[in-house]
Amino acid sequence: MISVSLAVSAIPEGLPAIVTIVLAIGVQRMVKRNAIIRKLPAVETLGSASVICSDKTGTLTQNRMTLVKAFDGSTSILEDIGSDNSPSIKKLLCYATLCCDGKIMFEDGVEKHIGDPTETAIILAAHKNGMMKEELDASYPRLAEIPFDSERKMMTTVNLIDGKKIVIVKGAFDVLSSYCIEDNMRQAREYVDRMGRDALRVLAVTFKEIDTLPAEPAPEIFESNLTFMGLVGMIDPARPEAKEAVALCRKASIKPIMITGDYSLTASAIARELGILSEGEETVTGRELSAMSESDLKERIGKISVYSRVSPYDKIRIVRAWQERGEIVAMTGDGVNDAPALKAADIGCAMGITGTDVAKGAADMILTDDNFATIVEAVKEGRGIYDNIRKVVGFLLGTNIGEILTVFFAMLLWREAPLQSMQLLWINLVTDSLPAIALGMEPVESDVMNRKPRRKGESIFANGLGLQVLLQGLLFSTLTLAGFMIGRTTGNLVTGRTMAFLVLSLTQVIHSFNMRSSRSLFKIGPFTNRTLNLAAVASFVMIALVSLVPPLATVFDMTTLSNGQYLIAVLLAFVPLPVLELAKIIGLVRHRK
């Protein structure tokens, strides 16, 4: 991709500064939409994002887990969680709670969940059944532990229960099942699938008794020959705005992808609900992904919309596979292990609420609300900002080319300068800068998400902008020279320069309204950009001051014109308006879909 900063490095002085102002305005807009940009080039890159890889929990869902179902491993009943469950389910909840680090506090009748939402959902279910975590911890003290690890997908504790040393392990069923003594596991797998199809996140709880406690907790000692105890199923509702955001992605030709540590069926169910997983698209597990070669992944990646049970390294492979296809990839992450993937992505998006400092440090953008919809809004703003930069670049280049050609042809034809240096400086200061900055504040166009993402490597002058700039410069030059010639013919050289100044300066202010959109000005509303309206009024006032107030007119080497000459100058200045409107109608100024 040709960077905006590189594209403008060789164009008129002051333009890079104005582009920076436009970027800064865009950054402020994004902050209001809960997206903090850490690296300015990310604003430009966002507009061309074609793939968004997102975590599920907390980003696509509300991260408010509620435990709703449980299976005790022995009966054939999938029990609803309430306030008075069966003794076997209560025991299951008790053991699961002992193997949790989260807490629930009640302040003025309000629940306050501290820690991992999965754990607090278990603790709350136990609390509803009359088992407070603090009391359980006091009655059955923890002797040792092996914390949860995203690679192992398990957590282990050793608790003293009724005088016995009991190892409790909770984690992903498909991982834990391989460490269990085979006992009714077929039925357990059926319930895992059943709950997964209902979009429930499922955890297995296992245990065993040990005689002695080793000096150092070791997974190979604690996490083997386990007895399956049961399953707990919890739901994390999808964010209401996420479904709309996914639909907007599809409309904008952006591929949304879910990456999660959840069970395959659970991930697929949520993805279908949100519209991420459509007919003909695939769900791939981390194990299946590991078995794929780089060439296989590159070939299949276009059809894969959901990745389940993946590792942080898998995320890097996914990012690179898409990038090799020429796509611009946005990737979300929150953990320390996600930092390499955030670095590898074109746009790394860290979670502002649950994200670690390491993840935030590696990211280009921080989502202060951990919301997928915020990424999509940021992409929309990114497209709008890039559009505004093109408008500013097109406006300033067109007007500057008009000035250069005016002087060049006048010297060639008459060997006389049509404008004094003071007049040119005033035009550049007033009629260029103020409207240009106001164009950078143009609202995002309503159809910006109906277009395809920009192609990788696309120049800022693509889609005919370069030719448009040249033709507009020729038009401004022709009109200014016409004014100069009329003034010079009906008066003298000073009269010609006065008319040339008025035509060129007024033309540029009026043309700024043309540059607001490649659609008709009257379709978007000619005066809907309030900042541009104010900038135009300010420019008109300052043009009038130096051309009509005698002391200032003398300094700028201008004279008073006749009413007819003023009318001709104004009419010439308005010519670009109907010309550009006609060009938009017949398609010379293209609106890329």
Automatic annotation (TrEMBL):
Residues 417-586 form the Cation-transporting P-type ATPase C-terminal domain. Keywords: ATP-binding, Hydrolase, Magnesium, Membrane, Metal-binding, Nucleotide-binding, Translocase, Transmembrane, Transmembrane helix. The keyword Acyltransferase does not apply. PROSITE patterns: ATPASE_E1_E2 (PS00154). It comes from the Bacteria. The keyword Cell inner membrane does not apply. It is a multi-pass membrane protein. GO terms for molecular function: ATP binding; ATP hydrolysis activity; metal ion binding; P-type calcium transporter activity. Its EC number is 3.6.3.8. Pfam families: Cation_ATPase, Cation_ATPase_C. Belongs to the cation transport ATPase (P-type) (TC 3.A.3) family. Type IIA subfamily. This is Calcium-transporting ATPase 1. The lineage of its organism: Bacteria, Thermotogati, Thermotogota, Thermotogae, Kosmotogales.
